[in-house]
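To whoever picks this up:

The parser on our side crashed when reading a file containing two proteins. I've narrowed it down to the boundary between the first structure block and the second sequence. Both blocks are reproduced below exactly, byte for byte. First block:
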Amino acid sequence: DDDDDDSSLMDSSEDSRRRRKSRKKSSKKKKDKKQKKKKKRSSGKDAAKEDAEKDPIAARNYAVVDRLYDLMHEHPGLASELPIMLIRMTSGTSFDLRQMSDVSAAQGLQNVFASMSSLGVTKESSGGWTWQSPGAGTDELFLLRLTRSMLNQVGLTMEAVDDYYGMNNEKQLQEAKPTANAKSAVQNETLGLLSKFKPSMDKDSNPLSLELIALCRMILEGQSISLEGLPDDNLRDAMEDLFAKAGLEKSEMVDDD
């Protein structure tokens, strides 16, 4: 019986050792899996950095293009001014961006110029941004050509940027035309009404233009006005046409009890 007890104790201890080993193996596998996942994540994050290290010129170009995109997105009006600035810079002009009234635009230009440091764009001790020629054979279009080349490399062109904002501006103009036309119609109607009825008014009465101003102020204050009291039917009809063109609605007025 003692032998049986001893053998059962040995079996149980052996089983416990096996269980401990299996637990160690499973935890080790889990650690290995976690480490592999971490390696995959880090490799994904570093992929762009490795590409940049392999091709520093491409990395520089993309950095410049990113700054240009941010600038044009926030300040599309600079799309026409920046090429001129680059030409003047290569001609020896220095730009002190601190003199700009638009702080946001100045910061955007500073980011662009800073990204072009490898192209010879530097910041002087006085605070101005200037360009140092890398050598002989460069002309005033040097920076502009390089910028266009960078944009072309990433599938963009200065013309495409200009066209994009040009289309947006054209769209805004088209949307503004109906409003401008409506204002013009109201203005013409008002001038016609004033010129037609002013001569027929009594000398002691107020000018019709002042009456119109008073009526418009009342409407802007939320009051309703009635033209029924006007003795001149033609004047009343003309003013109703004017108010209709201005977008006002005619409704029946109810007398208070």
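<<boundary where parser fails>>
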Amino acid sequence: MLKTRLAIALLLTLPGVHAASTTYKLVINGKSASTQAIVVGGQTYVPLAALKAAGVSSELTQGTLGDPIILGTGSSLTKRFAIGSYALTLEGRDAFGAVVASKTVHFSVTN
């Protein structure tokens, strides 16, 4: 009886462990990133170090991580990525909404 319960418990927890540990290799501008993206609860998370390599900055002030700022003020990265290849254009805009800087980053998310 104890072995049956243990087997059932393992069968129920193993799919969750696999889903929680899903990782993806990141390639930014044709170069493999030193970090990986992970999937937690169906959401894909990319490390800040990988975003920094793509030209995205963030600010840590008194223990609070601020919104990413892309090549200037007033814009942020809000796109979610799945497995595939992407060309990400980063734009910095001034207070009036005019583009003051632009950069295209090519990267892919693979298994």
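After patching the parser it read the second block fine. Helices lie at 2-20, 48-53. Residues 46 and 67 are 14 Å apart (CA to CA).
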